[in-house]
Design a protein that fits this description.
By secondary structure, the chain is of the alpha/beta class. Helix content is about 15%, strand content about 30%.
């Protein structure tokens, strides 16, 4: 089972820390993968959910590429990853029930499970059946570690 920290959270929402590069690294150091929200404005990359908050370099992302699930928050970000043929696992969604990541994973909103081999996003909201999932993305990912 792939365990993915939602924006760096492992034991509940920490709105003031979400998407902070240090917070993300702390979750990575605990051997979780992490979903991040990334923006690209001009040639500048930033992390943040509702708006760009933390400026980062593209190398920062590449240094962690195998453990990040990159939620592109604007068209410039996803265009960059597609055009550069990035090896990152990235995706775009807004209100879609499911979306497909660049690595072929079904990224599914809460309440849509069970979907075979998908990533269940915050399944605890609707007490989703996660028995068929390939992975889980949660603010409480620590609760799923066995």
């Amino acid at each position: 089972m792939i365990l993915i920290s939602h924006r760096g959270n492992i034991n509940g929402k920490q709105l003031d820390l979400e998407n902070n590069p240090s917070y993300i690294d702390a979750a990575l150091n605990l051997n979780y993968e992490v979903e991040i929200d990334i923006w690209r404005i001009g040639n500048i990359f930033s992390l943040g959910h509702d708006q760009p908050q933390y400026e980062i370099t593209y190398n920062w992302v590449l240094d962690r590429f195998d453990k990040l699930w990159v939620h592109c928050k604007n068209l410039s970000a996803i265009e960059f990853f597609v055009e550069s043929k990035s090896k990152l696992n990235y995706f775009w969604h807004q209100e879609d029930e499911v979306t497909l990541t660049s690595h072929g994973y079904i990224w599914a909103y809460s309440g849509k499970q069970p979907i075979k081999n998908s990533i269940a996003v915050i399944p605890e909201i609707y007490n989703d059946d996660i028995t068929q999932c390939k992975g889980i993305c949660s603010d409480y990912i620590k609760n799923y570690k066995k």
